Amino acid sequence: MSIFPRISLKPEVTDYLKNIFLNKEVLASVGHQEAECRFHKLLTCLSHPPSYTCVRASTHLAPLEEIRHKLGEELRKQQMYSSSAEEVSAQILPHPHIPDVLLLPVDGPRPVKQLSSEMVVGAQCGSAVLRGAHVFAPGILASPKYMKAGDVVSVFSDLEGKCTRGATGFQGKKVFVGNGVAQMDRSAIFGTNKPAKGIGVQMVEPLYQSPSFDNVLPSLVFLQNLPSVIVGHVLQPQPGERILDMCAAPGGKTCHIAALMGDQGEVVALDKIRNKIDKIRQNAKMMHLHSIKAYCFDGTKAVSSDVAQDTEGPPFPPESFDRVLLDAPCSGLGQRPNMACSWGLKEICSYQPLQRKLFHTAVQLLKRGGVLVYSTCTVTLAENEEQVAWALQTFPCLTLQPQEPHIGAEGMLGAGLSPEQLRLLQRFSPELSWDQTETAAPLPCRADRDTIGFFIAKFLKN
User: Fold this and answer.
1) Could you tell me which residues come within 8 angstroms of residue 419 by beta carbon, excluding any fewer than 6 positions away?
2) Is pLDDT at 180 greater than 90 in this prediction?
C-alpha cells in the first residue's frame, strides 16, 4: 500500500490530465487498460520522492572522484550516518552515462511511528522534508500549544492549504512526513511580528532518509534533478560561444552551461525578478564561474532591431546568440514529490501563451545554424509536444535534432507529431516504470527511470 495518497488536485485538473493520458492516439496505441494504469501511476508517483538524490559535480574545479570522496567525508559528519567515510563514499555512485553526476540512494518509506505531539507545515515545506531538508521556521503552520525547543514532534504536511498559521492543531487533510526535534519555542515561531528564520525542526526520523545538502561543499556539488542536468549536455555549449539562458533563475542550468564551456565564452542569464538575479550571481561566484552575465529583464522583450550589434545588456539585436536555452516557466506538474497542487485549470493552462511569446523571442535571437533547446518540468501535452508541433509550423527555419544523451522516453502521442519526430523528443515519464518494488534494482538502473516529469526538445535554426 502507498504511504502517501495520490497527488491532491482539483477535480477539474484531474479530468484535464486524464484526457491527456487517455487521448485517442494513446488509447489506440496501448489500449484503455494500460493507459488508465499509467495515469493512476502518474498521480501516485508524483506524491513520492525519487528513490535517489542527484547532485551535479563541479568537474571544472576538481575531478569527479575527488568530489565524490570529499562528499562522502562531509556526509559522514551528518548524524544520519554511523558508518565510516569510506562506506558512505561507496554509496555515492557516478552516473554511468553523465560524467558530472553523482547519485545517492534514498531510504524510504521507512517504518516511522507517529507521535501524539503534532506539527503541521505547508505542502512545499513537506515536499522539501521528503527530499532530505529540515523544517525551516517560515514553513511551520501549526504546533502544539506549549511546544518548547527540544520537544520531539511528528511533522505533517497540509495537503489542501487550509491550515491557519499559528494554530495549535489541525484536523484537515494532511500526511505524515517524519519526526523531528523542535529547535525553537512556539512563541519564537509565532509570537513576534517578524517571521522567524532558521531551522524550526531538525528531522531525526524522516519518512524518507536522504542527506541534507545545506552548506555541504557549495562550490563543488549542486543539488539538481537528473533531467535538469541532461538539458545542459543536450545544449552542447562550446568554448568561446555566446549563449542565452532566457529564464535562468536560480541559475543551476546557467552555471552548468558555463562549466561545460570551461568558463570560456559568455553566458547571458535573464530573469524578471531582481532577487532571483542576485541568486544567479551568488551561485556563479560560489562555483568560481566568471563568464556569466545576469540581467533583470523580461525575456519576451529581449530582442530589438533598434540596438547596436555590440550591445552588452538586453535588449539584444536579432541573431545575437550561438545557442539559446528556453527552460520555460510552466505548470510544474512533473515536480516530485508534490503531494498537493491548489491551482485550478485556468492557472494550469495559462503558461502556453507565455511560452510561445518566449519562443518567438528565442528564435529571433538565435543565429542561423544555432541551437535552441526548449524544456519544461511538466507533463501536459499543451506545454510540451503541442508546443513543438506549433513551433515547427510557425518557424519553418527550425528542425528537430537528435539529443545526446537520450535517456528519457520519446514524446507522447496526441499532438499530431510523426513517429520520427516523437523519437527525437525526450520525455521523462516516471509513470512508465514507477513501481515501489523497483527499489531492489541497482541504483544506476533506477536513476534514468525514477525521475521527475520533464520534457526536452532540441531545434536547429537553418
Assistant:
1) none
2) yes
DSSP string, 13-77: HHHHHHHHHT-HHHHHHH-HHHHHHHHHHHHHHTTS--SEEEEEE-TTTS-HHHHHHHHHHHHHT
Residue with cell 542561423: 368
Q: How far is CA 191 from CA 167, 195, 265, in A?
A: 12, 9, 51
Question: Residue 160: phi, psi to the nearest 5?
Answer: -120, 5
| Cα–Cα nearest to 392, from 374, 380, 407 | 374
Known catalytic residues are 377
With both helix axes pointing from N to C terminus, report the angle between 32-45 and 11-21 in degrees, rounded to the nearest 10.
130
Report the pLDDT value the prediction gives residue 1, as an integer from 0 to 100.
32
Taking residue 445's Cβ as centre, other Cβ atoms within 10 Å add up to 12
Residues 6+ apart with CB under 8 A from 442: none
Residue showing cell 527555419 = 397
Compute the average pLDDT of residues 384-402: 98
Closest to 405 (Cα-Cα) out of 234, 244, 165 = 234
| The Cα angle at residue 337 between residues 345 and 15, in degrees rounded to 5 | 25
Place of cell 530582442: 303
> 88: pLDDT confidence band, cut at 50, 70 and 90?
low
7 in Cβ contact with 159 (< 8 Å): no
* Cα–Cα distances in angstroms (integers) from residue 161 to residues 10, 140, 319, 330, in the given order: 12, 12, 45, 21
Unique residue bearing C-alpha cell 494532511? 174
Residue type, 129: V
pTM higher than 0.90: yes
Give Rg (Cα) of the chain: 23
Enumerate the H helices of 261-409 as residue ranges: 274-286, 345-348, 351-365, 385-394
> Which three cell numbers, joined as nine digits, stand for 320?
545575437
Phi, psi of 343 (to 5 degrees): -70, 150
The CA distance from 81 to 191, in Å, is 35
Which positions ≥6 away from 17 have C-beta within 8 Å? 9, 39, 42, 43, 333, 379, 380
pLDDT of res. 2: 43
